[in-house]
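Holo prediction — manganese (II) ion.
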Amino acid sequence: MDLFEYQGKKWFAQYGIPVSDGDAVTTVDEAVAVAERIGFPVVVKAQVQVGGRGKAGGIKLASDAAETRKHASNILDMDIKGHRVDVVWVEKASDIDEEYYASFTLDRAAKLHLGMLSAQGGVEIEEVAANDPDAIAKIHIDPVDGLTEQQCREWVAAAKLNPKATEGAVDILMKLYTAYVDGDADLAEINPLILTPDGRVHALDAKVSLDDNSVFRHPEYKEYDATQLRDAREAMAHERNLQYVGLEGSVGIIANGAGLAMSTVDIVSQVGGAPANFLDIGGGANADVMAGALEVINSDKNVRSIFINIFGGITKGEEVANGILAALERVDIDSPIVVRLDGTNADEGREILSAHLSDALQMQPTMLEAARKAVELAAASSGGGK
Ligand code: GDP
Ligand code: MN
């Protein structure tokens, strides 16, 4: 889950990382009230999950209430690269001497955490990496050993920050590492991390991505979940507790188990088709789950055929078959369905389905044949519209 800047800054603050005093608001009047509370000058910042907000006019300095009003009313409802601004963050403006970059993320290939620090901050790190890769000091951290203050100092020295920033940077990086690990983040980035004229170091921006699978350890993360950006299909699937990823193709996929769902996406591609989604219905293939899955896929106007690929395990073949039939009575489906049913009591399940087969509901004995049939049906009906 990706946090907005205002959420990231509150998350930082919980770990003692210095951020500017501020608040998130949704109206112009509230923006002015926040500015008057914290004192001028303030910065009004568009809350969208996209970089380059400043260039797009989404970050403005205001020296009094009238300016705050003007900027907040311009920024609220602004469109930044296709993202509408619903929330602005108003914070105390900072004086900046230098802008740095700092982040922790996971280096999956190395199976280690990766810290990156650069004296060239304020610009996208990809840009620094392309133009001047030596300007990024990297550190690999074994998650078992953690990051010691000594290692952190050496890392800061390697990044050649202004010596005035050393103590502040070490302090913030140690806290950022704790936040990243204890807070179960996949990414914790500060860009820019600033040095002020009076020698303080602090976070002027926050980009944080949290591990969705850690919510059980952090019940408060549910609040972030509520503000996640999802397309209409993803929102529908999320409401139904389905593991769903929307793709661009025309073959809708329902499978039980993430491994089987991935294989199904692969095999559809392999036989020349394009998957419309990845959907894992998990262990129970009962009528409720199946109906929910079919509703989500049916709402995707690119879908031309639906491939239901089930390997019965604890859920027996006849329960799966009855689940599919019951779901079809509840949901009007616009595309032909191809079922492949295998595993526990597959014969019993197939027997039940075979009494109901038609052009709209077909069955194939193997995954490969079912994939071919689904792709063929999608191709036959494409261009026809729905
Ligand atoms: P992003 O470009 O969308 O990542 O937005 P940032 O929050 O990183 O801000 C972009 C730039 O705006 C920073 O690199 C600063 O140069 C400038 N900026 C943001 N806040 C302040 C502030 O309080 N004072 C000053 N002087 N500049 C700021
Ligand atoms: Mn930034």
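READOUT: The pocket of guanosine-5'-diphosphate (ligand 1) is lined by residues 43, 51-54, 59, 93-94, 96, 99, 122, 191-192, 204-205 (CB under 6 Å).
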